[in-house]
Amino acid sequence: MHPLKTLIAITLGSLLLSNAQATPAAASVSSSSQRIWISLGDAAYQQLQKLPRLKARSEASVAALASGPAPALMPGASLEGAAALEQVHLVEVDEAGLADLSEAVHQSLRRCGGYLFHASKEDGLRSLQRLSRPRQQALLAASKPSYVIDQQALVTPMLSQMQASNIGQTILDLSAHTNRYYTSSGGVAASNWLKTRWSNLAAGRSDITVEQFNHPGWAQKSVIATFKGTDNASELVVLGAHLDSIAGANTGESTRAPGADDDASGVASLTEIIRSLVASNFKPRRTLKFMAYAAEEVGLRGSQEIAKSLANQNANVVGVIQLDMTNYKGAANDIYLFSDYTDAGQNQFLSQLIQTYLPTLKIGTDRCGYACSDHASWNAQGYATSMPFESSFAADNPYIHSANDTYANSGNQADHSLKFARMALAYAVELGADGPAVTPPADKTENFSGNLTLNQTRSFGPFKLKAGGTLKASTTGTGDIDLFVKKGGAASTSSYDCKSDGNTASESCSVNSATNTEVYVLLKGYSAGSYRLTVTYTPQ
Ligand code: BES
Ligand code: ZN
């Protein structure tokens, strides 16, 4: 079967058509099998072009397309980061030829296929285009979270009661299915099993719902557990992993594909987070969504449908984390933060969370170099994502996508996964605990007054400052008062963003912030005196 039927090559900022020439004979070739659209990176595509059978088909179709109107293509959100340097190709293939395609890429590049599925040509073009203007505006208006770490009192006890053995049991339960392929009965059964498992964990909590997300194109459903936020429910935080497994491109009903690491380990990590949050009776202020995606292994299909559906509703998703392969420690560092198709600010936050809550862990960075997991589906919709990974890309688990991706081949333990589960729980609680950002009126002021003795300090705040706004703190009074102001954490006489320490009680400091943040104020009596502190917000 000739997989390639039609091809469009896209580079950053411009549309390139292949230099191929059409021949009438080739142009008349038609296919009887089902055609689907995929996009893939240049490296993978270059390899495919070396296959003579594939080449003939694609040349004909490029010429056919060149005669039509050229779409105005722009660099896409899905091409962000270093991966953007690769040219991306949108290709129509016979679905039956996907096996050849995966095999060719696997053999020549020694990595997995890395293609994205698109429901149609238009759909493929759209996802390679820059985000639409209304969507960009919606995102600008959306809340950027404050990445202040201030929930130690809640997080620390939860971390200590999380157990590797629970994660290990869930990995065993999931990998006991013959496979979890997106069209197989095992894939369906695993989805039903997980829905029951998560529902049981949430029993007795009316604020938690567990649902299956139906995908019209195939049988396996995604599973979504939602903790509804108490007073900031419209802001969503998404924690994801993929439910499906695969063992080679010809995976069928009875192919053994345990997928213990890829990605029962991610789903099991989410399951332990849910268990711990419920055990601690945690009620988030933002809405938390735990997602086990169907059909990741066949082009991120489940997560694309879900991310698009939320983007179409203009959902205010403030952060997304993907756990795909967490239990095989293949390299020296514990957690590798992948840089491509992810958000640098959120990655920095994760790094801070690890340093705060798991200080013994070693952090690395790496990249896939292509849209390797479901975080890319959210990145394509403009949302902030992260993908913390079990190893460097080169030293990942060699057993994945085969019958040997078993719990035994991850050492019959889940200690590595536990690190990821703990980090992601800290992420869920720190982001989940934030209330709505305040938009104070321009003239909003708050006043505080009191007395200070020599060297006495007094703290005020946190004052919530919305992205783009300015906060001014000023004092009047008697004696000599010094003023210290800090964003994102408590101010001290040695740690501040602004200090005002003249030799009277009249001091003034202004701070502004591009993201939502929390501002802390400290007053110190340089000599005994009285103060009146005025805090004024000015929105953007
Ligand atoms: N878990 C893998 C991705 C992965 C593998 C990341 C090895 C890092 C190292 C994922 O399930 C997968 O196989 N993804 C596909 C891409 C997808 C778009 C079909 C892949 O890598 O080919
Ligand atoms: Zn995976």
UniProtKB/TrEMBL annotation:
Its EC number is 3.4.11.10. Zn(2+) 2 binds at residues 297, 401. Zn(2+) 1 binds at residues 242, 262, 324. Its cofactor is Zn(2+). Binds 2 Zn(2+) ions per subunit. Residues 1-22 form the signal peptide. GO terms for molecular function: aminopeptidase activity; metal ion binding; metalloexopeptidase activity. Keywords: Aminopeptidase, Disulfide bond, Hydrolase, Metal-binding, Protease, Signal, Zinc. Transmembrane segments: none annotated. GO terms for biological process: proteolysis. Coiled coil: none annotated. InterPro entries: M28_fam (IPR045175), Pept_M28E_Ap1 (IPR012189), Peptidase_C_arc/bac (IPR007280), Peptidase_M28 (IPR007484). Disulfide bonds join 368-372. Residues 223-415 form the Peptidase M28 domain. Residues 463-519 form the Peptidase C-terminal archaeal/bacterial domain. Pfam families: Peptidase_M28 (PF04389), PPC (PF04151). This is Leucyl aminopeptidase. It comes from Roseateles oligotrophus.
